[in-house]
Structures are given as structure tokens and as C-alpha cells.
Amino acid sequence: MSTATAGASREAMSEKQFFGHPIGLMTLFFTELWERFSYYGMRALLVLYMTASRENGGLGYSNARAALVYGTYTSAVYLLAMPGGWAADRFLGLKYAVFIGGVIIAAGHFTMAFESEIAFYAGLVLIVLGTGLLKPNISAIVGRLYQPDDQRRDAGFSIFYMGINAGAFLAPLACGFLAQSEKWKSVIAGWGFQPSASWHWGFAAAGIGMTLGLAQYIIGFKYLQGVGERPPREDGGATPVWQGLASYLGVAAALFAIVAGLQQLHGLVASQLGDKAGYGYIALVFAGIIALVWFSFLRTLAEDELKRMLAIVYFFLASIVFWALFEQAGSSLNLYADRLTDCSIFGFEFPSSYFQSLNALFIIFLAPAFAWLWVQWGDRQPSSPLKFSVGILLVGVGFIVAAVGVAFLGGGRLSPWWLVAVYLIHTLGELCLSPVGLSTMTKLAPERLSGVVMGIWFLGPTFGNYIGGLIAGHFDESKPESVGSLFYQVAATGIVVSAVAFALTPFIRRLMGNVR
Predict the structure, then answer these.
(1) DSSP state of 54
(2) What is the CATH number of domain 22-273?
(3) How far, CA to CA in Å, does 79 sit from each of 92, 260, 434, 458, 509?
(4) Spatial CB neighbours of 515, under 8 Å, sequence gap ≥ 6
(5) What does 96-121 look like in DSSP terms, one character per residue?
(6) pLDDT tops 90 at residue 126
(7) How many alpha carbons fall within 13 Å on the CB side of residue 135?
(8) What is the pLDDT of residue 331?
(9) What are the boundaries of each domain within the chain?
(10) What kind of architecture, by CATH, is found in domain 275-516?
(11) Is 3 a residue whose pLDDT tops 60?
């Protein structure tokens, strides 16, 4: 598309607005809302379904096996964001990558609606592949709705993120009800279905959510004219969609093979030499990645750029610890809710998966307060390294609350307010680290290495989610004292790492130069 045509398209789109923003933001807002609905709806059920007995419709996995599958799945979602962004920039275009990704995601959820272990894993693979195409590229389209100097850009992203959290809040309520509610099981039994099949109704609901997102994306496609179009080839044409998709799938398959090999080797090391040796192996993989980045990119940088890249590596390592602890929400804390917590408040009984909505609910109310606070403090606000240390500290403190709660277990179940407090504290930690980290990466990255830096940032939750799955594998509700011990160890890890991060703050600030 020529510059003139693109400009005309932008001018036409500017005639309609969405809360004072380009009308295309409305399309992206609701697409992301329903995509996150599908993701968090399934995520709330994943570990619970895998650990439920065969008689109750589950897979009958041990906690350790279910946690490993969960950690591998959630880490793969972030890992494929890199080839997904590459395929869109090189072949598919951002708009079409989002659409194709959404179709694959919906197919994955509907595949999981079938009562088959093969269908379960096939669905997970499809969701990972689809999310790799959709997740990084829909955010990129939001940025391209605005001119570089448009003052509405940050506010537009804030509206977009509200869509993410709205979907994340609604999903566990809807999907959890269909999967776990005894009332719903009675309803489907009356229709002639097995009550134990209710899990698959929850998975199907996630697919319906993504389908609704695709429907409104198609309807609003006209509002994205001139934004995220397919890149032209040297001959002026466009690469066929099937070739672009094949390239993405080829890279994804190669990454899957590498990850599978590393995972098998990790399992061998851990089984033969113990868990500590297994974690040592993961540390070696980290060291290898850092060495690869060093020899590939960092050796040629100017001194000030090198300092900033070293700060980026620090933030990457710190984020791994945070995500390993924070992402217990979908694994060990999900089991904590289901097996040890009284799922009723003021006489109202609810499925254990409802607790998964708390984080999004707290973000909806607290994110504007944090944004206001940072603006009010201006130059007096804490530096990014200090915010990171506070974020890690808070996620550690949250696990102290969870561990203390176990001491009050007795012969019954815990009050739900223990978990409410845990999720509140963890959300405060997330607000100190997650949005701050993304913003800091964009400020620190040398312009010619911006893609590499974002790839490094996405590797943080990739490794964090996998390690989190290993940690959650030690959860054993049959031994409450071991649950308390596990959470105290997790808390101690967070607090110690936070203390180290706090001590390093002045040094990291010097590396960052004039970047706050």
C-alpha cells in the first residue's frame, strides 16, 4: 500500500473514535478480551482437570506430572512469541497473523472439548501455536494505530490492557462454572451427558470465547486499513499466506524439538542426581543463552550501549525469579484452593477456579491507582531496579501468608480470605514489576537491537513458567505440613533475591545511565 493510500486510510479511520482513540482500538480491545478469556478460562481448569481422577472425568495425573505439563505449556506460549512476531514482520503481516492465530487457538480449545487424552495434547499444541501468532502481533498493531508523536499512545495501551484483564476476570467465572459446578453437572445429566464430562464444556466455552473474538475482528477489520498489512516482496508482490505459515510452523517445530531435548536431559539429570542438580542444569542453560547473546551481539557495542545491555540481562534474570513464583497461581495455588480451601463466602458456594479471577479484578481497580501514583511522584518515584526488588519481595511475602494459613488448617479447610490476601499481595508485586519491566526494556534497548531485547524479555516468563512448574510439582495436599514448608521455601527465595536486587540497585542504576 502506498504512503498516500495509507494516509488516506488513517484519515478515514480518524473520523470514528473509540473513547477519543482510533476506532481500530475497539476492534483490538474486544479481540484481545476474548482471546484472554479463552486463555485464562482454560488455564484455570488445566491443572485441576489433569489431577482429577478418571472417575471424575480427569486424567488422573499426579500433582508433579500435571505441574510439569502446565509449566511446559505456559512457557511454550511465551517462547513462540518470538517466531510469531518474525513470521508476521517477514511474511504474514500483523493483521493476518492475528486472524490466523485466533483460528488456530479456537481450533485448539474445541479439540480439547473432546474426551480424549490425545485430543487434550493436540489442543494444547494448537493453542500454543495460535497464541504465538496472535499475542505479540496484536499489541504491535495497537502501537501502529498512532503516529510516533501521538500523546494518546500510552492511554491507548492502558485501554487495551483493560480488555486483557476484563477477559481474564470473566473467564474463570464462566469456564469454572461449566467445569466444576454441581448445578451445571445436574443440568447436563438431564440432557443425557455424563456429569464427569463437565470439564470439556469448560474447554468448549473457552473456544466459543475465541470464536466471538474472531467474529468481531472480522467485522472490525475495515477499521484497520493501512495498519499491519502484509509486507511486499522485492518484486512488489506478497508472499503467499501458506508459505509464511509454513515458515512459522517450521521454526516452531525446531524450537519444540530443542525444548523437548533440553527437557528430557533435565529430567535425566534430576532423576539421577537429584532436584538440586536439575536446577543446576537449568542454570547452565541460562549461562549458555547469555553467552550466545554476548558473542552474537554485545561484543560489538559501544561502552554506554554495553552497560545498558548488561542492565537488560539483569532485569531478565530477575524477572525469571518473579514469574517462577507468581505463576504458581495456575498450579500450586490452584491446588491450594481446590484441595485445602473452603470455597464459600457468606454462605455462597463457588468453584475453586473462581479464585483465578482475583488477580485480574485487583488489577482493574489498582492499575489506575498505580499509574496515578507514578505520575504524582514524577522524578521522585522509585527507580526501575528498586521497583523490581519490591515486586519480587511482595510475591515472596504472599507465600508467607499462604504458608501461615496452612498452620490454621486443623481438620477442616482454610478460610478463603487467606487466598484473597495472597492474590492481593501478588497483584501489588505484579504492578511493580510487569508493566515497569516492559517499559524499561524499550527505553534501554539500542535501536538496532530492539527485537533482540524484546526476545530476551519474553524469555523471562518462558523460563519462569517452566521453573514454576517444577516448584509446583512438590505440592502434596495429603501432607499439609509439607505444603507449608514448600511455601516458606518459595517465600524465602523471593525475599533473598529481593534483598540481593535491592543491594544491586545503585550499580544497576549506573549501568542504565539517564534511563529511570
Answers:
(1) G
(2) 1.20.1250.20
(3) 19, 13, 17, 7, 29
(4) 308, 384, 440, 443, 444
(5) HHHHHHHHHHHHHHHHHTSS-HHHHH
(6) yes
(7) 21
(8) 95
(9) 22-273, 275-516
(10) Up-down Bundle (1.20)
(11) no
Distance CA 111, CA 123 (A): 5
Report whether 384 contacts 511 (CB < 8 A): no
Per-residue DSSP letter, 59: -
414 in Cβ contact with 405 (< 8 Å) = yes
| Nearest in space to 420 (alpha carbons), one of 318, 494, 346 | 346
C-alpha cell at 2: 502506498
**DSSP class of residue 297?**
T
Tell me whether residue 412 is exposed, middle or buried, using C-beta atoms within 10 angstroms of its C-beta: 0 to 12, 13 to 18, 19 or more.
exposed
**150 φ, ψ (degrees, to nearest 5):** -75, 120
Could you identify the residue written with the cell 510475591? Answer: 395
In contact, 44 and 172? CB cutoff 8 Å:
yes
Report yes or no: 433 and 322 within 8 Å, Cβ to Cβ: yes
Nearest C-alpha neighbor of 323 from the set 200, 467, 452:
467
**Which is it for the CA torsion 16, 17, 22, 25, positive or negative?**
negative
* pLDDT, tens digit, 9 for 90 and up, residues 437-455: 877 877 787 766 666 677 7
Cα–Cα distance, 367 to 158 (Å, whole number): 9
Among 158, 105, 156, residue whose Cα is nearest residue 127? 105
How many residues would you count in the chain? Answer: 516
Pairing of strands 344-345, 17-18: unpaired
- Phi/psi of residue 11, nearest 5 degrees: -65, -40
Burial of 300 (0-12, 13-18, 19+ CB in 10 A): exposed
The pLDDT tens digits for 335-385 are 999 999 999 998 899 999 999 999 999 999 998 888 888 778 877 888 889
Answer yes or no: is pLDDT of 11 > 50.
Answer: no
CB burial of residue 236 (10 Å; 0-12, 13-18, 19+): exposed
Residue with cell 499481595: 425
> Rounded to whole angstroms, how far apart are CA atoms 489 and 485?
6
What is the C-alpha to C-alpha distance for residues 166 and 288, in angstroms, rounded to an integer?
39
Q: Which amino acid is at 446?
A: P
SS3 of 211-254: HHHHHHHHHHHHHHCCCCCCCECCCCCECCHHHHHHHHHHHHHH
Rg (CA), the chain: 23
Same fold across 22-273 and 275-516: yes
264 Cβ contact list (under 8 Å, min separation 6):
none
Tell me the pLDDT band of 83, cut-offs 50, 70 and 90.
Answer: confident
Which of 40, 12, 41, 21 has its CA nearest to residue 158?
Answer: 21
Q: Are 120 and 112 in contact (CB under 8 A)?
A: yes
DSSP 8-class letter at 414: B
